[in-house]
Amino acid sequence: MNVLGIDIGGSALKGAPVDTKTGKLLAERHRIATPDVLAPKDMALAIKELAAHFNWKGPIGIGFPGVVHGNVIRTSANLHKDFIDLDAGKLFSKVTGLPVSLVNDADAAGAAEATFGAGKGRKGTVLLLTFGTGVGSALFVDGILYPNSEFGHLKIKGKSAECFVSAAAKERKKLSYKKWAHKVSDYLNQLETVLWPELIIVGGGISADYKKWFKYLKLRTPIMPAAFLNEAGIVGAALSAKK
């Protein structure tokens, strides 16, 4: 089954058709920048544009950066507040004229890694974190997902952790990889204390540069980059539509 996987981020949406049997992209990833915060109807039009780019007529799976119950969005920390409590699946399906399913974006990335990537066949507790505009998280125990784990919003100095350790925070504060990695290390140490994961997988665009900053982390847990790097969310979003 082939599905158009779309990963909605804080500054762009990215997508490609995916072979859900293998996890492979069937075309080059297409990106639509969203420098302005899009209201739901405008986001729906951007999704329609992305589908039209591939002349897509089949099902669409979409990863959204927030808590998702069914196709209803419950939180929207980094996107338009009108998404909160919206049946976005219904809206996106109406605008595109295609069947749409939604999933939390980090859960999508985690599903891709658990099915085809760095977490495939791993037993025990596996934590996936995506560092981008915010910090997404997905928690698996023996390959089973605990959905909508929002560890990026744990509090540091009264604010969400992602305000300090996201890739966007690194750029905003003009931190070197070393200084940023020290902050990330402190954050991961907190998660280690609470969750005792047996593997940490890191996704998001900055995962491609893991050799520049993993060496500065001081962890007891093995850590590795996502096998799909920044495409994990696309693949996982497609898998969500397969179910």
TrEMBL record:
This is ROK family protein. Gene3D superfamilies: 3.30.420.40. InterPro entries: ATPase_NBD, ROK. It comes from Rariglobus hedericola. Pfam families: ROK (PF00480).
